[in-house]
Write a structure and sequence with these properties.
Largest sheet of chain A: 6 strands, mixed
Largest sheet of chain B: 16 strands, mixed
Distance between the termini of chain B: 45 Å
Oligomer: heterodimer
Strand content of chain B: 35-45%
Structural class of chain A: alpha/beta
Helix content of chain A: 25-40%
Shape of chain A: globular
Order of helices and strands of chain B: HHEEHEEEEEEEEEEEEEEHHH
Number of strands of chain A: 12
Shape of chain B: globular
């Protein structure tokens, strides 16, 4: 059973000619089949956690360990992490001019699976996955994320999640900027992948809204670069009613707003 | 020295031949607004190099070009070395291949030199090549012209003429090292179809400057691919004018500009005839310090050219820091009675965030780069229709990318 283990993770970022510690000792274990929601105010370091796990070069790991099934994730390059089974659905997916969605998906699937998918079954696989996400077939011929609306970008991320079948999926604010219909479609996509029981999901969100569609097994409150409280789904209800004030009082997140910008 | 070589015969060709592209435009535009296509040139078109002052670099048509790297092509100091260039023509049966003297009446019919180096080339070449595809001859194999330099200075002129309803594909392949100024004339008879692929695959030190003039007959189709990879400095000036209605020009270009290279493509489509079409699409990738690409896309729709349909586009993909692109589309319309006219220019970067995104989907860095660049060029490469050239371009693109890692 695939397990992602994060132990005492410390991460810094360079900003304004200064080194700033964003993550201050994160401990978390995500097992295959589990869904963990990470909730927290802006600037608490949620996105930094997501990008650090994926290996974004902007972030420097200064302490701690991350392993996937015992393998040292922090030693791996970005593409090695993806091939090892980590997937990051990004909050701001990047435009890649000149590369069609169809070419991108096939190249990615070839890299992840270790061999090129058979053309006939692959075309069918993509077509069906796109239909489930209410994506028009013409989407496949557009350039990756170029001119996509916010909702199209997120659907495209979830399309990749469904096709690449990772061991651990990190969804970084996939719900942000979505209207209710798009949120439902995207959530259904995530749930289809979860129902396979083969993926561990780390759902990073600012709002409780998405948790009405995707039921987490665990909820963690993130504040000032670490997990400050963990519980079951009921913790989300508490956050819904009481907000984050109880966790941010005392000024522990002061000045941390820069995190959202750099992520 | 080349400057005194303009013969009376050539002057008579100029006077008696069909109206040339440049002089027609100049005559009409001289009274028009200041920023027009023709008035941006510092001297009127001429076959005689003496009619052009030596450029100092601030002229509109020279301001992007590093004159000191022209190795004297622009100021008369580059003297032909005689053995500098080998030109080999491999043509299928039915094609007439000739080498002719300066007085041959077929030279210079498609257009007049518009700048000093083009005029220098015209004033200095000793022999010209003429390739003729007789009327109604339809070739199934390409004509291949190999131009190989061995380090000398050379001036040249090449004419490619298709008779009425002839069809041909011509590949002109430039390799080796040279300091070359050479013009090419394409003359298409009525209903002819010509596809030209000009590949500049020079060694790193080569300098190549040339004007390509196409004169397209009634209902004829001219399709051109200008592919520039090599050279220290390449500056090409593809120009199109129409000799009859219903003619169509497609001008495609690809360039891959590496560190230190200057690659400049300056196009003019002169819609001087009603009911003609043109479509221009040039794409370039750049990488490395002081890689410099220049694209000038001039389209002129003259008052008499009603029913014109034209579009021009330039796209650049900057792969690393330190590269520079100057892209200047310029559309000039003297009549409103047209089908369509448009232009677009965009320069984008392949940056660390794109690399991260692709790698986060399992794609290794070198493959990610290849994916982006191949994808960027693919739509143009696929239209060439000459298999070995398409394959070679893709290999070349990969080699360029590997060199960068």
């Amino acid at each position: 059973m695939a397990t992602l283990e994060i132990r005492d993770l410390h991460v810094t970022v360079e900003a304004d000619n200064a080194t700033k510690e964003i993550l201050k000792g994160v401990d978390l274990t995500v097992k295959q089949g589990e869904t963990h929601a990470i909730m927290g105010p802006n600037g608490s370091g949620k996105s930094t956690l997501a990008y650090s796990l994926a290996g974004h070069p902007k972030y420097t790991i200064t302490g701690g360990t991350v392993t996937l099934d015992g393998e040292d994730v922090l030693e791996m390059s970005v593409d090695e992490r993806a091939r090892a089974g980590l997937f990051l659905a990004m909050q701001y997916p990047v435009e890649v001019p000149g590369v069609s969605v169809s070419n991108f998906l096939r190249t990615s699937a070839t890299a992840i699976r270790g061999e090129a998918p058979k053309l006939r079954t692959w075309v069918k696989e993509v077509k069906e996955a796109m239909e489930r996400l209410n994506m028009d077939p013409s989407f496949a011929e557009r350039n990756v994320n170029e001119g996509f609306s916010g909702g199209e970008k997120k659907r495209h991320e979830i399309l990749q999640l469904e096709l690449l079948k990772p061991k651990v999926a990190i969804l970084d604010e996939t719900d942000s900027g979505l209207d209710v219909d798009a949120l439902r479609v995207v959530s259904e996509g995530v749930n289809r992948v979860r129902e396979s029981g083969e993926v561990g999901t780390l759902l990073i969100t600012h709002y409780t809204r998405i948790l009405r569609y995707i039921k987490p097994d665990y909820v963690h409150v993130f504040s000032a670069g670490r997990i400050v409280e963990s519980g079951g789904a009921e913790l989300a209800d508490k956050l819904e009613n009481e907000g984050y004030e109880v966790y941010t009082k005392g000024g522990s997140v002061s000045g941390a707003n820069s995190e959202e910008e750099v992520a | 020295m080349a400057e005194a070589q303009n013969s009376p015969t050539l002057n008579s060709v100029r006077a008696g031949g069909p109206p040339s592209v440049g002089s027609t435009t100049a005559g009409q535009i001289a009274v028009a607004a200041e920023s027009t296509v023709a008035t941006r040139m510092s001297a009127p078109p001429s076959f005689d190099v003496a009619d052009f002052p030596v450029p100092h670099g601030r002229e509109e048509e020279w301001r992007f070009t590093p004159l000191e790297r022209l190795r004297g092509l622009h100021d008369g100091t580059a003297v032909a070395t005689g053995d500098g260039l080998q030109v080999t023509v491999d043509a299928p049966e039915g094609v007439v291949v000739e080498t002719v003297g300066r007085d041959d009446a077929r030279l210079g019919k498609a257009g007049t030199p518009v700048d000093r180096v083009a005029a220098q080339a015209y004033s200095a070449f000793e022999k010209a090549g003429v390739v003729t595809v007789p009327k109604e001859t339809v070739l199934t194999e390409p004509i291949r012209i190999a131009v190989h330099g061995e380090g000398g200075v050379a001036y040249g002129h090449q004419v490619i003429e298709l008779g009425a309803f002839a069809e041909a594909v011509v590949v002109i392949d430039h390799t080796g090292d040279a300091v070359l100024a050479a013009n090419v004339d394409y003359i298409l008879g009525d209903g002819a179809k010509l596809t030209v692929v000009s590949v500049q695959d020079w060694d790193d030190k080569a300098v190549h400057v040339g004007q390509h003039n196409a004169l397209i007959g009634r209902d004829a189709t001219f399709k051109s691919f200008v592919v520039t990879f090599g050279g220290d400095l390449v500056r090409l000036h593809p120009r199109v004018a129409y000799a009859g209605t219903g003619a169509e020009a497609e001008l495609f270009g690809l360039y891959f500009t590496d560190a230190g290279q200057h690659q400049e493509h300056r196009l003019l489509v002169d819609h001087n005839t009603p009911h003609c079409k043109s479509n221009v699409a040039y794409k370039g990738a750049l990488q490395g310090d002081d890689a410099h690409a220049v694209w000038i896309g001039d389209v002129l729709i003259e008052a008499k050219a009603e029913g014109t349909d034209t579009y021009e586009m330039n796209r650049n993909l900057v792969l690393t820091d330190g590269a520079r692109v100057d892209s200047v589309p310029n559309l000039e319309i003297e009549t409103g009675e047209i089908v369509g006219a448009g232009h677009a220019s965009a320069t984008g970067r392949f940056d660390d965030e794109q690399l991260f995104y692709l790698m986060a989907r399992g794609i290794p860095a070198d493959e990610a780069r290849r994916l982006v660049v191949r994808g960027f060029f693919a739509e143009l490469v696929q239209q060439i229709g000459v298999d070995d050239i398409e394959e070679r371009l893709l290999v070349k693109i990969d080699e360029e990318l590997e060199a960068s890692v």
